[in-house]
Amino acid sequence: MPETLDHEAADTVPMRHRDLEQIALVALRAGRLLMECGVKAQVVREGVDRISRGLGATQVHVRVGFASLAITVGHGAQTITRMTVVGPHGVNLRLNHALRRLCARAGRGDLTVDAIGADLDRLERETPRHPWPLVCLAVGVACAAFGRLLGVDWIAVAPVLAAGALGQAVRHHLARRGLNAFVTTAVVAFVASALAATAARALGSGMTETAMIAAVLMLVPGVHALNAQTDIMEGQPTLGSARAVSVLMTLVFLTVGVWTAQATLGLLEPGPVAVPPRVLWHQALFGAVASAGFGVLFNFGWGAVAWAAAAGAIALSVRTLGLEAGWSLEAASFVAAAAVAVSVQALDTVPVGVRRAGAALAVAGCIPMIPGSLAAQGIMSLLELTAPDVAGADALLLSAVNDALRVVFTIGAIGAGLTIVTALWRRPDFRP
Fold it and tell me: Structure pTM?
């Protein structure tokens, strides 16, 4: 009996203030890395909670913001609150899932504070990334595939590929120098669209304007747009709204870069409108290529890149069939996103090594359906309205509003298709 009483008494002894501080700081560090990998708020919250409780905290309260994370941890009557700054939001699947595995281990109580800190150091330092020249090439190929999906002629495919690759190289080097992300977007959009237009026009392409748009579609923040919607739907309206504003600002600076290139090259007059082909094999093929290119950009492993290509083929095939059946773009995109989400969830039932790619794999498959070209065209139409003595201002405004609404509703439909399936077919975010 005395031994039992001594054991219970030991369990009720509160942790020291210094111990709680160490728990808070290491949990915040893991949460910050998860945020910078491009995950939704719920994953960050659960990861931080698992680490804190696995280290002995009995009370954990987490606030997930766009630019900061805050945590309050406690044990008994003792509590402590700490905050950390979140860096630029990117997408890194391999680091993302390595961090989730670490959180799962820590949640079982298998690790100490020092061990978790050492593992975080190792993951930041050693998690493999694709070489940046390969990423640039993959992005260029993805932009060329987008160009074919948008209807550019074959002559413009090579210029779009080269412009997209060069734009990603410029983006990589400006990011390493710490330049403001929005300014970087404008610079890259100008360089890539100007090169695509110049080369396409020199080769005799009749789709110069569409080539310019295709060359900058790697700048459209599709993952963050879908995360914004998911966060709002899962009860994080503040973070979701902040992400949505960031997406809008990125699109504005992207448009400024393209518009500046058009003005510099004397291409402000509208060119021929490309008509995207609806041949099923064509859409499936280039949807797969575009998704695979973004898989490399998002640091997928090679197995996951192959599955991302399959998801892109499914998305574009289903959407094309829906459009051919007379559905609206929004309805076809919703069904296509749901089909991709079901396919990805079904990977859990088969013994393949990349089945845990999860939501990121579904998002990569749906990215070719993000109407980035419509968004850019809508914003450029609004910019044209600021010129003095605009001819046909009413029609221009109507076109801009129509493009904006189609973008909002299409992204909303894609997000709803992914989120509804995920909610109905629940899968754990953290696994052993």
Answer: 0.86
